[in-house]
Write a structure and sequence with these properties.
Length: about 290
């Protein structure tokens, strides 16, 4: 009986490993987006993207528009969203783009905005929880208000977005929730990254918990957690150049490729961050500190 159980567990483990290897191969190949763009794989589907006014949020919106998706974009800066909408529609006139001003720290507004988007499009196929802040200070240096805001926006506001998305998906009985975490979530990080990393780790665990529940309840709702590495955007354009960083276009393409692959989780870009991510979980903390 014990040997039979062990054999079943081993087979299950090997099947899982093979599946993960296949998923990883897809990511490492970094598929050419031109084929997906030509096929318009997003035709008649709708994506909500929060924090879409700049950075990787805007970058992903541009690419998903090329893939044929209808877009529901939201952020605080409405004028930036209007400019982005005009740009996307000029290149992709066949899709539909709706926008709304949203401050994700207004939790009631998150639920209201998502429901309004659902009413506009009838159904929502994917929600990308992207809105967040990168600010942070060393803990215990008198900057609690900044660290509290980082924790609240990156976790509590993200929770509100996940709750609002899952309400829609449960009612529809389908959907794809995407949580944009960070490579810094892999371990505790020093200096200005301490609270940021903790908040992104919280989001990653939240997404995994939702995924576990979907598996247990056998609901056809996918959940993906993305761990971006160093991506240079206007938010960090004044910071010193970092090892392994990529530009916004390259990073956004890698993010969309990972999301479209349907994997449960992905480090982006896959190389070198998949390898670094595995190492971060086992290296001594004083070596992990060097990434901070």
């Amino acid at each position: 009986m014990k040997n039979s159980l062990l054999g079943t567990l081993q087979k299950g483990l090997m099947d899982t490993v093979q599946t993960k290897l296949a998923e990883t191969k897809t990511l490492l190949q970094n598929p050419d987006m031109s084929g997906l763009i030509k096929d318009k794989i997003g035709k008649d589907k709708t994506i909500i993207i929060t924090g879409a006014s700049s950075g990787i949020g805007a970058g992903m919106a541009r690419i998903f528009g090329k893939l044929g998706y209808n877009l529901a974009i939201c952020a605080r800066r409405i004028e930036r969203l209007e400019t982005l909408k005009a740009e996307i529609l000029a290149e992709n006139p066949e899709i539909r783009v709706e926008l709304k001003a949203l401050d994700v720290s207004d939790y009631d507004a998150v639920f209201e905005t998502f429901k309004e988007f659902q009413q506009l499009f009838d159904s929502i196929d994917r929600v990308i929880v992207n809105a967040g802040v990168g600010e942070g200070r060393r803990v215990g240096t008198g900057w609690f208000h900044i660290n509290r805001r980082t924790a609240e926006i990156n976790f509590i506001s993200a929770l509100a977005q996940c709750e609002a998305a899952m309400e829609i998906f449960r009612a529809q009985k389908f959907g794809h929730l995407v949580a944009i975490s960070s490579m810094s979530a892999m371990r505790g990080m020093p200096k200005h990254l301490t609270v940021y990393a903790a908040s992104k780790a919280g989001l990653a665990h939240l997404a995994e918990g939702i995924r576990a529940e979907m598996i247990a309840d056998k609901l056809p709702i996918k959940v993906t957690t993305i761990y971006p590495g160093y991506i240079r955007t206007e938010i960090n354009e004044g910071a010193p150049k970092l090892a392994f960083e990529v530009d916004e276009v390259t990073g956004s393409n890698a993010l969309v490729a990972a999301i479209e692959s349907g994997v449960e989780q992905a480090c982006v870009p896959a190389l070198p961050w998949m390898v670094i991510g595995k190492a971060m979980k086992h290296l001594p903390l004083h070596l992990v500190n060097k990434l901070g």
